[in-house]
Structure formats: C-alpha cells, structure tokens
C-alpha cells in the first residue's frame, strides 16, 4: 500500500502475515517511533541478537514494510551499516479489520501484539522506575461494559486522541513506553438456558 500523508495503510495480505510475529511488529514499531536505525541499534534497544534482527529485517524488507534509507560508517568500522526506516511514520492496520478476507491475518497480528504486550509489561519492571499518578508509566486494566452508541463514540474518540498523543510524542528526552489495547464485542447470551436456579 502506498503512504498517504504520514500514514502507511497495511492492507496487503503478505504484509499482514509478516506482521503476525511479535519481534517483527516490535521492529516496525521501533523504526516508526525512532528510526532510521541500524541492525545494531535495533538489537540493542529491543534486546535481540543481531542475527535475529537481520532475519526479521530481511522478511520485512521483502514485503515492503521497511526499507534501507541510508548508510552510516562508524569510527573504526570496515564497512558502513545500513539504516532502516518504515515507509511512513505511522504504520496503520485499522482499515484491515473491516476486510473479511484479511480477518484471520488480523487475528494473528492481534495475538502477536498482545503477546508482546505481555513481555513489555513484565520487562517494564526492570527497565525504569515505575510511576503512578499523573506520570504513570505502567499499568493495565480489563473492563467489560455496555456502552450505548454515544458512549462508544466517546470511548473511540479518547482512543484516537491517545493514539495521536503517542504518535506525535517524538521528544528525544522522553522515556519510551509501549501502549497496547484490544477491544472486542463479547457474548451477550445472558438468558438462562432453563428456569432452574433462577432468582425469584
């Protein structure tokens, strides 16, 4: 998919299949937030071996989700390192949710994102001090509610605003955080199968 402004819409089945991997999703997210970066840079910030990063970069490059943008020669190095970046600062998959033929791939991507969120949450205790209150940088919640259309619109408005705040937070003095969320309709079968055991 071609970039639109500062966004790249991921609708290609091969790209979605490629992103159904927590390490590859993490690489794309870090490049979108902090790129361009070399394989050495990526290996350091995401705690992965360079050989593994090369493997994932090769797969992402093959489907057009990352590309080499420049080269950098470090002091004492024999050859320059390639610097990689995403096609646009915002890599977006939300439009794929409405495409029935992409549904299985999107489910796998959501699973990869949530597996990575599990790792992020666990590792967050080791990386930086955990804050609460106005400068909270660590937390989770899971809620089930029954919002009407107006309330659901407000919830989605807040989620969009949070997305914008994070997408625009390119302050190099800020500490990196990962925010993951998943929303899905759940079963509404609240009617008892029989009268047995009902409250009177």
Spatial arrangement of strands, main beta sheet: 1-2-5
Q: Structural class of the helix and strand makeup?
A: mainly alpha
Unreliable stretches covering 5 or more consecutive residues: none
Please name the CATH architecture of the domain at 3-129: Orthogonal Bundle
List keywords for this structure.
Arc Repressor Mutant, subunit A; single chain; 200 residues; two-stranded antiparallel ribbon; mainly alpha; 5 strands; globular
Give structural notes.
The chain has 200 residues and is mostly helical. It has a domain at 3-129: Winged helix-like DNA-binding domain superfamily/Winged helix DNA-binding domain (Arc Repressor Mutant, subunit A), CATH 1.10.10. Helix content is 42%, strand content 10%. It is built from six helices and five strands. The strands form two sheets. A three-stranded mixed sheet has the order 1-2-5. Strands 3-4 form a two-stranded antiparallel ribbon. Helix 2 (22-34) packs across helix 5 (103-127). It starts with a strand and ends in a 33-residue tail after the last helix.
Summarize the structure.
This protein is mainly α.
Topology:
Layout: E1 3-4, E2 7-9, H1 13-18, H2 22-34, H3 39-46, H4 50-62, E3 67-72, E4 81-85, E5 90-92, H5 103-127, H6 149-167
Parallel strand pairs: 2-5
Antiparallel strand pairs: 1-2, 3-4
Helix pairs in contact: 2-4, 2-5, 3-4
